[in-house]
Amino acid sequence: MELQGEIDLERVESKNVIVFFKDLRRVVPCLPHLTSYNIIDEKTVKASFKAKIGSISVLEYVYRITADVMITLDKYDESKNYIEYSFDGKSAGINYTGKIFLNVLNTNNSVKIKWSASVDIGKRLEKLMRFINIENLINDLINDVIENFKKCIASN
Length: 156
Hints:
Elements (H helix, E strand, L loop, with lengths): L1 E9 L3 H9 L1 H4 L6 E8 L2 E9 L11 E14 L4 E10 L2 E14 L2 E11 L1 H8 L4 H22 L1
Antiparallel strand pairs: 1-7, 2-3, 3-4, 4-5, 5-6, 6-7
């Protein structure tokens, strides 16, 4: 699954944004639906999430799903304002992996973050997700992430 988008930030400097995303101690607490996290080292964090999957589910009593994820800062190039993360996780007993790419660009009095993600959710999770509107779930999650990051970056 391939995803991409842009985030516009006003009244911030690209250097501050790139420094923010380089520091997992600042990034991870801004992730939505976070229930706990453990900083392993400056480039690795283990995090747990619990997210709502909708008001109607395959099983009437299952409205939330938990996920455990290992997030790693793989590449950081301050001169190119570029960051790359990888993640490995497990949810509902199913493994998934992916990469997230961020490119921070200066524009007139603002910063634009161009992002893309490549996610392999595996065949078993794809089958499970056919009972859930995965497109809406992902769009809601991305919107939550963007709004949380905007707030966190503005407060730093």
